[in-house]
Amino acid sequence: MADYYTLVTCLPWLPEQMEKCSQLPLSRIALNRRLSLLDSHDQQGLAVAEALYHPNLANTQPDRERVLLWQKQIAELPSRVLQEVITQRLEIQTLLAALRYRRRPNTSAEHFYGYGRWTEWIRQHWKDPLFALETQIPLLERWGELFNQGHTGELQFEMDRYFWQQLLAVERSHHFSVETVVCFVLRWGIAERRLKSDADAALADFQLLSDTLLHNSGIQQQLNSLFEDINR
């Protein structure tokens, strides 16, 4: 069994509130060095948990084969608590996939595949704006409003904050255990994605601003005049 006490005490602090995490406390390389204290079984479980919790967003529509794979992988996770955490994440992912899928032309409920307890319910309530799940998911009305308004950035932020608090609650209730480690790493993954996204957006804004300033500057005007003189 891994020495969870030593590993957990080596992990840095992540803020309780996601929005206060303005930088990563350590690199992924440094994090992996600490995670090498896990035994091979726990390392494999962590890899599966990360892949399921932070999926490739290019394809959020689950198909039958992917759902069967998820079921197999979740059953192999090292604890019941982690199975529930990952399951809830995939169920909400399925719900959002259904909302997106329903907007496509020529789609129907019977062709929708998803993971978890709500899939059949979603098919049965396909024409309901939020699939009649408001009472089961307290934040769904707010998320649905943001989705319908096209505020994808704010929707992602609020969902990330929800997941962050859920993972933090598990960390606090399971001291010096594999659950503590995995949920910390999953929170680290949320922070990494958010900070990378912010950096990409900032770079794009900077490049746009730079292009605009250059286009409107006296330097650019002089260059344009120079090229005009050469081409005459």
From TrEMBL:
Question: Species lineage, top-down?
Answer: Bacteria, Pseudomonadati, Pseudomonadota, Gammaproteobacteria, Oceanospirillales
Q: What name is this protein filed under?
A: V-type ATP synthase subunit C
Q: Which organism is it from?
A: Nitrincola nitratireducens
